[in-house]
Amino acid sequence: MISTSLTRIARATALAVALGSVGVAGGANAAGNSGNGDMKGQIDVLNWWTSGSESKAMGVLKQMLAQKGIKMNNDAVSGGGGGNARTVLKSRIQSHNMPGMAQIKGPKIQQWCKTGFIGSLDNVAKSDNWSKKLAPRINKNLKCNGKYVAVPFDIHRINWLWINRSLMKKANAPIPQSWDQLVNDLGKLKSAGITPIAGGGDTWQVGTEFDALVASVGDAQFYRKAFVDLDSSALSSKTMVKAFKRLRVIEKYTDSNGSGLSWNHDTGMVVNGKAAMQIMGDWAKGAITNDGATPGKKVACIALPGTQNAYIYNVDTFEAFKVNSKSKQKAQNIFAKTVMEPQFQRQFNKVKGSIPVNEKVSLKGFDQCAHKSSEAYHKAKKNDDLVPSMSQDMAEVGAVKGAIFDVVAKFYNSPNMTAQEAAKTLASRVKQADQMSKL
Ligand code: GAL
Fold first, then answer.
1. How does strand 160-164 pair with strand 277-279?
2. Where does the pLDDT of residue 37 fall: very low under 50, low under 70, confident under 90, or very high at 90 and above?
3. Mutational test site, ligand 1, from 45, 46, 47, 48, max ligand atoms within 8 Å of CB
């Protein structure tokens, strides 16, 4: 008993010291935080992390912030890929209910910056030397007019294939090393009465599959030409036609009852032996762990055949919005500081399925798929094979991504549409969306 209360006192003292060091002016009332117990600052964090593993990962942050006296309001909006969360963000801004931080990625960070609603994390980023801890490509993306406005959490790889090993054995199908082997395996699985692929639940999931398939047919240069430069000849090329043909194969072998199901439901199907494979970014790894399986063992993780050298990356970032009090600004700074700290980077990324974005953080104790991801990342970085993910908003602005997704979804849902037609439509829709977004 006594030692428990002493621990409590010690904790309260530590908290007071921490608060002293962040200098929360005027106490709880001045911060507008009455009713938050001993919390002396708070922050609304808009995001789309609502699956089991994703909310656990956010729980890590909530707890670490609470230890520093900051109450984090986890404003999570369901919908993988964040389409719904982005709509909510816009409507919150319209109703003058700005979050302190919001999940925003890729070129959208700069787009938001132009609105004038964006705050600054420049002091904390500079005093904590972020530029020494982050890959230059990632570091650059966090700035607006030379000042840091966003903080990165993780690095996810998109081009993964998750495979239930025992179903493969049952169908006498080897772990595929090439596209042709994969197609062969899919046939075997189907004949054995096993659902070959879980997926197809919504446009974002199909777009994510297509993303990896494009990397399976073209190299990093092609990928960038198509999705970063939006080059019409690459978008309508034979290589793109091949990617659509591969998507048709995947669609044919996908669970026909999958429509409307979430990505984590599909991961659960692979873990529980209801489907053999899923093509998905490694947030699926977070779901595998959350379902009680060890990634790499029961469920194998391999690069989608044809993408062994490719690393389509997705970096989750949170952008700071302008806040109206010093205490809220301090809460923002503590948020950003905590996210880059090694302790958070390790705990969060283990739960989330990603690897630490802070390159100074060790991977000791991470599962074998995380190690594979890290090796692939460093190899791709060295060979200039890293590409920003089209499907996860890392490569282009919203209107262009929307146009790509429209064409991909139309093709997926129209059995009679040819791959040639799809590639041609892709080039013209992207061109139009790109021109419109520049108006
Ligand atoms: C992505 C996000 C990932 C993952 C996924 C599914 O856009 O970057 O971290 O959470 O959505 O929700």
1. antiparallel
2. low
3. 48
Residues 204 and 227: their CA atoms lie apart, in Å, by 16
Q: What is the pLDDT of residues 58-97, one digit of tens each?
A: 999 999 999 999 999 999 999 989 999 999 999 999 999 9
The beta strand positions in 180-243, using DSSP E, are: none
Pocket test for ligand 1, best of 61, 108, 156, 280 (most atoms within 8 A of CB): 156
Question: How much distance in Å is there from the Cα of 80 to the middle of ligand 1?
Answer: 6
pLDDT bracket for residue 398 (50, 70, 90): confident
What pLDDT sits at residue 439?
Answer: 81
80 lines ligand 1 (CB under 6 A): yes
Q: How far is the CA of 140 from the centre of ligand 1 (A)?
A: 21
- CA 407 distance to own-chain centroid: 22
How does strand 311-314 pair with strand 386-388? parallel
Q: Which domains does the chain have, with CATH numbers?
A: 4-155+315-373 (3.40.190.10), 160-313+374-437 (3.40.190.10)
